[in-house]
């Protein structure tokens, strides 16, 4: 019975994450089922139950959306986990100083979710990332940066239980992935050379929480021609400086809370 209950919780969580990743667009039942690996009747039953609790809303013509109770829960949790206000200036600075699109992403379990986006001045842009999109750790540059800076035991446990090649191809196999992580640990930042969409490059640096864990990342994305090796060092320096600045703000906030 306990195992069955845990399965229901896992399915509900998967549905809520799917709606969260839709960037505010309604998700039809059939698509929600496909994205979560559920049958359509099961997805509909669970979504209807969530709607009865106010956690999701239904648009009769288009599908399901997160509901008002989800907003309230998120607002309460934001007091502890949300750093968007602290990081907004750093995201703007990355965009201003590099000219690329800049992002803040957060770790959520074995994934990263994009929270903020700021466009740079360069007219050609990558459209891989947007607020709400999720990627497994080790795929987008933000997840690579967070994984690279995670404790070795935690990093190895993730690599042991994860196979990214089925969805993301051979370039995300264990050997090339380990090589990217090792380079990132040496330089402090990640370079993702168009591994999600050809020609769309990304770089990222991890942001550490008050206990020293990599929980967020700043990233910059753009077209390949803008990420030649000499410029990678320049962008990497900007990302590291801004990530450290946000980390100091997080540490200060933690210290202030402890003195209340």
Automatic annotation (TrEMBL):
Stretches assigned to the IclR-ED domain: 69-252
InterPro entries recorded: GAF-like_dom_sf, HTH_MetabolicPath_Reg, Tscrpt_reg_IclR_C, Tscrpt_reg_IclR_N, WH-like_DNA-bd_sf, WH_DNA-bd_sf
Domain of life: Bacteria
Domain HTH iclR-type positions: 6-68
A single GO BP: negative regulation of DNA-templated transcription
A GO term for molecular function: DNA binding
Keywords attached to this entry: DNA-binding, Transcription, Transcription regulation
Pfam family, one: HTH_IclR
PANTHER family: HELIX-TURN-HELIX TRANSCRIPTIONAL REGULATOR, ICLR FAMILY (PTHR30136), TRANSCRIPTIONAL REGULATORY PROTEIN (PTHR30136:SF39)
Protein's recorded name: IclR family transcriptional regulator
Organism in which the protein naturally occurs: Demequina capsici
High-level lineage: Bacteria, Bacillati, Actinomycetota, Actinomycetes, Micrococcales
């Amino acid at each position: 019975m306990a195992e069955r209950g845990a399965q229901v919780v896992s399915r509900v969580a998967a549905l809520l994450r799917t709606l969260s990743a839709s960037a505010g667009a309604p998700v039809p039942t059939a698509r929600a089922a496909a994205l979560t690996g559920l049958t359509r009747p099961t997805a509909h039953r669970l979504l209807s139950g969530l709607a009865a609790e106010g956690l999701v809303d239904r648009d009769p013509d288009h599908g399901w959306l997160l509901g008002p109770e989800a907003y309230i829960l998120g607002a309460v949790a934001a007091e502890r986990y949300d750093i968007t206000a602290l990081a907004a200036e750093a995201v703007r600075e990355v965009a201003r100083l590099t000219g690329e699109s800049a992002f803040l992403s957060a770790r959520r379990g074995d994934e990263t979710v994009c929270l903020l986006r700021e466009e740079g001045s360069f007219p050609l842009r990558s459209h891989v990332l947007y607020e709400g999109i999720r990627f497994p750790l080790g795929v987008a540059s933000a997840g690579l940066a967070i994984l690279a800076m995670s404790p070795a035991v935690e990093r190895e446990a993730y690599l042991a239980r994860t196979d990214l090649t089925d969805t993301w191809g051979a370039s995300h196999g264990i050997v090339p992935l380990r090589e990217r992580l090792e380079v990132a640990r040496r330089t402090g930042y990640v370079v993702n050379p168009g591994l999600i969409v050809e020609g769309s490059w990304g770089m990222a640096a991890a942001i550490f929480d008050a206990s020293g864990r990599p929980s967020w990342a700043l990233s910059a994305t753009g077209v390949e021609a803008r990420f030649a090796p000499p410029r990678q060092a320049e962008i990497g320096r900007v990302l590291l400086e801004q990530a450290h600045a946000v980390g100091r703000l997080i540490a200060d906030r933690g210290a202030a809370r402890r003195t209340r």
